[in-house]
Amino acid sequence: MKLSGEDAMARQADEHLMTHRVKLPRKVVEHPIRQVVKRLSMALLLLVVTALIVYIDRDGYADSSDGTLDFLDAFYYATVTLSTTGYGDITPVSDAARLTNIFVITPLRVMFLIILVGTTLEALTERTREEWRLNRWRSTLRDHTVVVGFGTKGRSAIKTVCATGLRKEQVVVVDPSSKAIEAAAADGFAGVIGDATRSEVLKRAEVYRAKQIIIATQRDDTAVLVTLTARQLNRNAKIVVAVREEENAPLLKQSGADAVITSASAAGRLLGLSVLSPAAGMVMEDLIQQGTGLDMVERPVIKAEVGKSPREVDDLVVSVLRGHRVLGYDDENVGTLELTDRLITIVRATPGTQVTPDIRPLHD
């Protein structure tokens, strides 16, 4: 699959403009600029209040330049006092003015310094704190799930895997859109902004230590490039890819995908099934919605089931995984169940129901 000249030029331009950075989920806080504006407004308010207090009691102050204190002098005194500069050209001389400085101006000065110093320290330490969180996150991330693309398909995939018990801390989203990564972070997922066809972007998502990779990009050619890059970085991870056109599925399997889902064809088949039998369409829709109604799960064979046929198992067995082969429940090659087999069964969804997928690739 070749890219056109315009697509190649656009991709190169994006590479120069794109900022590849990791965004970790965080608690909902105010935007930093809004915080700074709010604190500066508070500091300005304290300055105005102090100037008004001094101006009201202006007869208790002495100005070494002209002996009188106007509104500008009050603001000047408030500024040099709150900033602890204190030139001494304007001083409180009456007892009332000095008491006001002790019990009012001094607390205002402390509050003013706390606001400004606190804002400065927070601005200086924010980057250090974020770097520490990022390094800690990288050191603890193992056997996680990388989801490339946070569109409708990517969101649904994440919802499904999280319904099986996967913690949000074990999901990393990769998307070129900063808005998509912001949405992912708001949902509690770590995110990497960048083009996933580039190896350095996937490395930031620690893809070489991932257990499974879900690729749900908007374009099939992008999906092929991402699959090739991801497989090169991680030989053991299970890679599942969604594509629009069925003709691209063989190419993706050659690129290293373990499973390819043709979204357009799958939706079309579900539509056709619903036309023939609305009830059957509802059942299929229920099966693919993990955690509600009926679930299709993969589990190992237990010792009590060894030697039995799939029909003799308590659960409703759909298929048997034996080695790299997927056998139907009525396949004569199944015979009796073995301890190394795995079963695809349909069960009633419960809070404890979890899918335990085999990480080995399946081949037709």
Can you characterise this structure?
With 364 residues, the chain is an alpha/beta fold. The chain has 11 helices and 13 strands. It has a 7-stranded mixed β-sheet, sandwiched between helices. The longest helix has 46 residues. The protein is elongated. The chain starts with a helix and ends in a 16-residue tail after the last strand. The N terminus and C terminus are likely disordered.
Task: Give me some keywords for this one.
seven-stranded mixed beta sheet; alpha/beta; elongated; 46% helix; 17% strand; disordered C terminus; single chain; four-stranded antiparallel beta sheet; 364 residues; disordered N terminus
Concise description?
The chain has 364 residues and is α/β, with parallel strands linked by helices.
